[in-house]
Amino acid sequence: MDFIGAYSPDNLKFLMQGFGLTLWLALLAIIFSFLLGCVLGVLRYAGIPVLSPLIGAAVETIRNLPLLLLIFFTRFGLPELGISFSPFWAAIVALTVFEAAMISEIVRSGLNSVEQGLVEASRSSGMSYVQTLRHIVLPIGLRRMVPPIVSQFISLLKDTSLAVIISLAELMHNANIVMGPDSRFVFPVLLLVAVLYFSVNYTLSVVARRMEARRI
């Protein structure tokens, strides 16, 4: 093991550049997947004829596919249909689609957890379905679904490492390059990578636990 050589200023700078791209990738995917997942979850909860079952079928299909397959398809399959993305945006699209399917199920379950008595009481008081959804179901349901959504975001951050397969210069990609010339760098570099992932994911897990405790 060669910690001094592995942690040279140039290597650390290169690794942190990859970590920065990993965080940026995760942030954009979190934003896009949350927005899309909320829309899909609400539409499934609304029970709109034809539309809701179609969305449900699409969500279940995506949830049962490997994320790695979606990344490959977005990067190498879609160009065959005339749709091309750079490695960065291919990873964004694949992560967004996959995580949105997961989040939509969390949203739907959260909305379904709202007591039916509250819904019936709001409707009997003269509120429309949309008003009930906006003022009663969504506020209560969203508070209940925050912890599992944060947990899903933790999984998303870890899943960004799969983008190494399409040569995106994220943390694992850069770590592989640093480890390549000298096998003595493997343990120090992987240790640093583990610490970086752990620091972010542990922080998010603490936030999720506190939110869950506050909700209880």
Q: Which helices and strands appear, and what pairs or packs with what?
A:
Layout: H1 3-6, H2 9-46, H3 51-63, H4 67-77, H5 87-112, H6 116-124, H7 129-159, H8 171-179, H9 186-215
Uncertain stretches of 5 or more adjacent residues: none
CATH superfamily: MetI-like
> Which CATH class?
Mainly Alpha
Strand content: under 5%
Radius of gyration: 21 Å
Structural class: mainly alpha
User: How many E strands?
Assistant: 0
In one word, what is the shape? elongated
What is the number of helices? Answer: 9
Features of this protein?
9 helices, AA_ABC_transptr_permease_3TM, mainly alpha, 0% strand, 216 residues, MetI-like, transmembrane helix, transport, elongated, MetI-like fold
Explain how this protein is built:
By secondary structure, this protein is an all-alpha fold. The chain has one domain: MetI-like (MetI-like fold). The protein contains 9 helices and no strands. The protein has helices spanning 3-6, 9-46, 51-63, 67-77, 87-112, 116-124, 129-159, 171-179, 186-215. Helix 2 (9-46) packs antiparallel against helix 3 (51-63), helix 4 (67-77) packs across helix 5 (87-112) and helix 7 packs antiparallel against helix 9 (186-215). The longest helix is centred in the first third of the chain and has 38 residues, at 9-46. The protein starts with a helix and ends with a helix. The model has no long low-confidence stretch (mean pLDDT 88).
